Amino acid sequence: MATQTEVLTQLMQTAPAYCSGDELAQLFGISRTAIWKTIQSLQGAGYTIESRHGRGYRYVPNNQLSATVIQAALPSKIAPQLVVLPTVDSTNAYLKRLVSQTPLSQPTVVISDTQTAGYGRSGRAFYSPEATGIYLSIGLPMHPQQSFDPGLLTTGTAVAVAKTLTELFEVQVELKWVNDVLVNHHKVVGILSEAVADLEAGQLSTVIVGIGINLMTTDFPKALATKAGAVTAKMDVTRNEVISTLLTEFFTSYQTYTTGDFMADYRRLSMVINQQVELKSGTKTVTGIVKDIDSTGALVVQLPSGQIQRLNSGEITKVNLLTGAYHG
Ligand code: BTN
Fold first, then answer.
1. Which residue ranges make up the annotated binding site for biotin?
2. Which tens digit of pLDDT belongs to each residue from 253-268?
C-alpha cells in the first residue's frame, strides 16, 4: 500500500503538472481506488490537491506547515529530524523537555504554527500568532570533544536568516547586534540561543537556537507596535519554502561556523557600525561609537573617553544614527 508520504512526494515532484490516477496506481502497484482514498486522506490532512477529470491530480502549495514538504526541498545531505506542531507553549521549551528525557541523536527542528508562551531574551514574550509567522527551534546535539562558540553561532544564525529573507523577498535586511534582524528599521526576527548542560558529564549536551520570524504579522500588541514589523505584506512563497531555505542556509553555515567565515557578510549587514549606541550589558549601561564587530562576534565600542571596549553580550537599546534615521 502506497503511503501518503510517497504519493505526496510524487505529486510534489510532478507539480505544477497533473499526474494521472493510472500513473500513480502503476507506480505504487495499487488500485486507482486506493490512490483516490490516499488523495482524500491527504486533502483531509490539509494538503491542497486538485483533481481534474481526464488529467488526474495536482499538488498546489499552501500555507499549511508540513514536514514532508519541508524535507523534500532540503538538499539530501541536510536531513534533520523535523517535528511540526499545530500549537505549543514554546518550541524552545518543547526541545528542552525533549532533551531532558532523551539526548538528541541527530539535529532536531521543532516548528509550530503558533506558540502560546513564546519567549525571547530577558524573559520577554515573543508574539506568535498562527499562520502569519514562523516559530522554530533547532536542537543541536553537542558531542564531548565538539567546540562551541556562542558568539559565532549567534552571529552566524543572524546571517543565515538575513540571506534567507533577501533570497526570497525583495527586502533590504539590516542586523542590529547581536542578532536582531530588521526590515524597514523594524524588528522582523528574534533569535534566542540556549544551552542545555549535562551536569553529570560536566558539559553541554544540546544547544537550542530558537528563531521567530514575523513574516506577515501586522496586529502586534501595543507595546511592540512601533518596534516590530513584518517581512512582507504579500507572500509569493509558502512558509514551508521559507523554512527549507532557512534550514539549508543554517546547516550549511553550521558546518564551518567556528571559522567565522560569514563575518564579512555580518559586518556588511550591520546597522550599528560607525553609529552611536547605548547598550545594556548586565547592570551596566555603555554608550559609545561602534567601531567594529570583531572576528569573534564581539562589539568593539569607542567610549566617550576614547578608550576601546569589547563586549561579548548585552543588548543595544538605542541607536542614534550618525547617518540616516532609525525609528525602532
Ligand atoms: C528575542 O528577540 O528576544 C528572541 C525571540 C526568539 C523567539 C523564538 S520563536 C521560536 C523560539 N521559541 C521561543 O519561545 N522563542 C524562540
1. 90-92, 115, 187
2. 999 999 999 999 999 9
